[in-house]
Amino acid sequence: MQLITKNYCKYYCQKYSSIKDYYKKIHYLALYTKRKQLSYRKIFILIFIFFLIKISIYSQNNSRVITTGVPFLLISPDARSAGMGELGVATSPDIFSQQWNPSKYVFGDIGKKIGLSYTPYLSKLVNDIFLANITYSLKKNDRSAWGFSLKYFSLGDIQFNDLVGNTIVQQGIERPNELTFDASYGLKLNQFFSMAIAARYIRSDLKLSSDADPTPASSIGIDISGFYSGKTFSFKKKTARFRHGFNISNIGPRLKYDEGGQKNFIPTNIKIGSSLDLIIDEVSVLSFNLEFNKLLVPSPIATYKDGVFIGYQQPDVSFIKGIFDSFADAPGGFSEELKEITWAFGLEYIFQKSFSLRTGYFNESIEKGSRRFLTLGAGFDIDFANIDISYLFSTSKIRNPLENTLRFSIALPLSNQNTSIEESVKEIND
User: Cα–Cα distance between 6 and 38 in angstroms, integer?
Assistant: First the structure.
């Protein structure tokens, strides 16, 4: 991935991909920025950010981990979904459905909502790297709904200095960042099924102001989603409901950081999931959720230079071809294709629609990134707002950047809302 902006710095970051050369990336970047007096700590953090999401740093040159540009799009922005193993394609509707499945808005409450969330990133190392999100939803009738969201990922402040003689002169602060803005429209096609489409603008500003071309990289993405919310039925003397959902997100052109650089795929992926809501009584609901996810990005292929194997790299193909190829291009065949699928399982218990307890587990193959973690979460209704928090425990040898980090989100109803529990009980009684 060519995410470092200076030309020969990019060269070395691409050249060295094994664990034994990982710290060479830091070394060469440090050599380049020595005159600017950029700290090794910040250099390490920057490179670490770029490679965290989908690159396992212990992997050798035989690694076939799928990488993409703008990997922050894969980070869960809200604490509710984060508390259930980072899933949400088939869970009950909420204000943050824009990230997971905007089709769910149609089955939510009529009215307006706004949601805010904050996720500290690498909080053990720095305090100025974070993911912030604001979401707004509008449902005027029973058939359609709109959703809007802004997601901002800050990589913190970097102080640059010049060494003039024996004096350090400050040259200003750089603030690399990435953001997205998206809008969605959902329509209920019948009593039980809805579909939605979303359009997303993606902007990645990782360049320095001193670059010859400081223009940020940009792209667009399209989401196509569907959501099924079935009738309530009797299950072991209780009332239950099945929900199913899918979302093909970030369908769009590859991202190019500069004219001489390689194009990077954005994280196009497909989510498929199911949920079972068990309505224990008029005030309690227990939800079981299962979700599968696969990146629709080509698998890395063996690359040779002068007849010598130098590692695995993604093929230079269009994003459309990359989507179709991603289902059957793994060098290891069908077994490797299965390893490219992640899964998550989550539980949510809601009491009196005022208090929630959540837990979940996320699993990714060791060969494909080794993201494995357990999550805990809770939610509180304090009359005028719903507040959610979540916490993550890594179960992998690879450290997770969100490990031991509290995530927060708040939802503010801007109009009167009906409770889904009341609606469910009324439906079964009818």
Answer: 14
Q: Note whether residue 4 is domain-resident.
A: no
Higher pLDDT, 377 or 264: 377
Q: Residue 403 falls within a domain, yes or no?
A: yes
Please state the pTM of the whole predicted model. Answer: 0.80
Reported for 361-368, long-range contacts at CB under 8 A and 24+ positions apart, including other chains, are 361/85, 361/395, 362/85, 362/86, 362/87, 365/339, 365/340, 366/56, 366/396, 367/63, 367/64, 367/65, 367/336, 367/339, 368/64, 368/65, 368/66, 368/339, 368/340
Q: What pLDDT is recorded for position 315?
A: 86
Residue-wise pLDDT tens digits, 78-115: 999 999 999 999 999 999 999 999 999 999 989 999 99
Looking at residue 302, which CATH number applies to its domain?
2.40.160.40
50 assigned to some structural domain: no
C-beta separation of 158 from 38 below 8 A: yes
- Please tell me the distance from the alpha carbon of residue 343 to that of residue 363, in angstroms, as a whole number: 6
What's the domain range around 225?
69-429
| Dihedral angle of Cα 420, 423, 427, 430, to the nearest 10 degrees | 160
Residue pair 70/268 in contact (Cβ under 8 Å)? The answer is: no
Q: Band the pLDDT of 4: cuts 50, 70, 90.
A: very low
How many CA atoms lie within 13 Å of 84's alpha carbon, on the beta-carbon side?
28
26 lies in some domain: no
**Rounded Cα–Cα distance for residues 358 and 130 (Å):** 23
User: For the chain, how many structural domains are there in total?
Assistant: 1
| Sign, Cα dihedral of 266, 267, 269, 274 | negative
For residue 346, give the nearest of 272, 275, 244 by alpha carbon: 275
Query: What are 168-203's pLDDT values in tens digits?
Result: 766 667 788 999 999 999 999 999 999 999 999 999
